[in-house]
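= Tokenised fold =
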Amino acid sequence: MSVFHCDRPTPMTNLPTPGVDLIKEFEGCYLHAYPDPRTGGKPITIGWGATKKLDGSNWQLGETITQAEADSLLIAQLEKDYLPPLQKIPSWNDLTTNQKGTILSFGYNLGSNFYLASGFTSISRLLKNSDQWSDVKEVTRVFSLYCNPGSNVEAGLRRRRIAEAKLWLTQQQG
């Protein structure tokens, strides 16, 4: 199976670009549909980790897309399915672009409706407590909780959570 890491610019969007970049870094782009790495089966995935077509139907093994289609699919799905629920997080408008990007990456990986959901107490608490947003130890600890310990994807998720915490803590320039 080939992986394509594309250096093409992200299409014009209002999405927090640092989050889109992080998603691309950790998802990789596969132009041929493949089984989910965690389950070895469904959901069938393609592009930058898309599990559904734009019409909501499932991908099938054997299907292929172009790089341009993969890029457009990612942006369309982030804008349609991920950004709206994340923008409902009460502190969303208080977050920096890097923090919004972090939450976009986290939500893309673990589901956009994670805020206040079962199993997401620590990240929800962090988002509620802006006094902890610059606490390096606490931010790193909280993100590190979400890496499926003992699974075949733990190491990759641990790297992703560390990168998300680092992006969260990175100050905006000018």
